[in-house]
Amino acid sequence: MNRTDEQIAYHFDLMYESRLIDCIDASRLGSRYRELIINRLTNKGHDFAESSRSDTIWNRTMTTVKNTVGGATLDVFLQYLKLEIRRTLGMPEES
């Protein structure tokens, strides 16, 4: 998939605002979009990456969220991914 620099910057900005990545804002006046220097994934970013690694769990989560509520916040989506992992492993659901 080809993406423009603006599209990539927008998604990095969303990841930064969601605290998935740790960045330095290097924007200059007159920039068309925020310029970020990415340092690393945060703990939350690592959790999301690990939780979404399995295509089976990812697809099951996407289908359930779309069919049930149409969409969800990142935090809700991450919680559901973790729930699907627990179910797949036969672990009890957290209360």
What would you note in describing this structure?
- By secondary structure, the chain is mainly α.
- The protein has helices at residues 5-17, 43-51, 55-68, 74-88; strands at residues 21-25, 36-41.
- It has a two-stranded antiparallel sheet with strand order 1-2.
- The longest helix is centred in the last third of the chain and has 15 residues, at 74-88.
- The protein is elongated.
- The mean pLDDT is 87.
State the main characteristics.
single chain; 2 strands; mainly alpha; 95 residues; two-stranded antiparallel ribbon
Order of secondary-structure elements:
HEEHHH
Average pLDDT, rounded to a whole number, is 87
Low-confidence stretches: none
How many strands, what sense, and barrel or not for the largest sheet?
2 strands, antiparallel
- Rg (CA only): 16 Å
How many helical elements?
A: 4
Protein topology:
Blueprint: H1 5-17, E1 21-25, E2 36-41, H2 43-51, H3 55-68, H4 74-88
Antiparallel strand pairs: 1-2
Helix pairs in contact: 3-4
Quick structural overview:
The protein is mainly alpha-helical. It has helices at residues 5-17, 43-51, 55-68, 74-88, and strands spanning 21-25, 36-41. It is built from four helices and two strands; from the N terminus they run αββααα.
